[in-house]
Design brief:
This protein is of the alpha+beta class. It has four helices and 14 strands. A seven-stranded mixed beta sheet has the order 1-5-6-7-3-4-2. The chain has a four-stranded mixed beta sheet with strand order 11-8-10-13, with no helix packed on it. It has a three-stranded antiparallel beta sheet with strand order 9-14-12, with no helix packed on it. The radius of gyration is 27 Å and the shape is flat.
Amino acid sequence: MMSNSMIAETRTALTNGELRSLRQRGKVPAVVYGKQLSQSTSVLLEEKELLALLRSHPKAVLELNIPSHGKKPVMITDVQRDPVSRQVLHVDFHQINMNEEVKTQVRIDFLGEANGVKEGGILQVMLHELEVQCLPGSIPDSIELNVADLEMGSNLLVSDIVVPSGVEVKSDPEQVVVTVLAPQKEISEEEAEEAAAESFAHEIRSEDAKEVGSSS
């Protein structure tokens, strides 16, 4: 049973001005595509409900109550946002078959404190989401990866991640997920002044050498 559900409203063809007015009233225009729909269906969604979904489960299967079509399982395939305000302008949904596998991205949750970090290293995450394939009802909310044993200079790969039964990883198994970098040496003010003086002296010597070369 799907824990996420929303009710969509019918949306007829509207002008840009009318769509702008709807957004100001807390509505978000959307389109639903799918094999079981005779044609793409234009709908309206409550912005508050949609934003809550995008914050918590943006890749989850959603039960969407579509006017004249009833309740259908869908997934978000595209979200258009204003480049400045980041307001959601439009959403695309794809109606899915719960008995057919789908590909999606699942968030990686990192557990523990790496040994390398305890020694002064810096944990650098290279991959935040994992591409998986499975039945819609088997999509995990997130996938956990324990980094506690990660030493300085070492890393964990996609192949090191253990996923639930029925879930197939589609990401490159050799891709680095997380690593611990050695801390960069901090230069003291005195060392910085010495380095600057040496650089200046090197420039002077270079200029002198050019002058000697041109006069000979």
